[in-house]
Design brief:
By secondary structure, the protein is α/β, with parallel strands linked by helices. Helices cover about 25% and strands about 15% of the residues. It has five helices and four strands, in the order H-H-E-H-E-H-E-E-H.
Length: about 140
């Protein structure tokens, strides 16, 4: 997928009620944010949000948090939410490397990683998301 800079995407994200801002203050508060004690499932690298939006629609008894690094892609997920609002779905714009600062230990019930970043190539630093690096603490 080629990413294009979409003018105004950061402003839309900053103003969106679907996006959780100041996510570093959220550990231990996700039940409060959603207003219920339903299980929490997260998707890392949600892209345009098709998978997580569909899951949230099919499973209203589960809270979903979509994490996306790129503003232009997150904007598309916000637009989808504007067409069909789901109270059990929130978004965060962040790099997944910082995910342990957003969820308290045991707060996440399931992690979806549908489009992982490929592992390192010869001469390149590791960029992939590796199981075991943070998952045991969050689940």
């Amino acid at each position: 997928m080629r990413l294009r800079n979409i003018t105004g995407s950061r402003e839309v994200i900053a103003d969106s009620s679907y996006v959780v801002h100041e996510e570093q203050s959220c550990p231990g508060k996700w039940r409060e944010i959603f207003g219920n004690d339903h299980p929490i499932h997260i998707e890392i690298g949600m892209g345009k949000g098709k998978f997580i939006h569909t899951m949230a629609k099919l499973h209203p008894q589960i809270n979903y948090v979509g994490i996306e690094k790129y503003s232009s892609v997150l904007l598309r997920a916000i637009q989808k939410m504007e067409e069909e609002e789901l109270p059990n779905l929130k978004f965060i714009r962040m790099d997944a490397e910082d995910i342990t600062r957003v969820f308290a230990p045991g707060e996440v019930d399931r992690i979806y990683l549908n489009s992982p970043i490929p592992g390192p190539r010869t001469g390149m630093p590791s960029a992939g998301c590796r199981p075991g690096s943070f998952w045991p603490d969050m689940m």
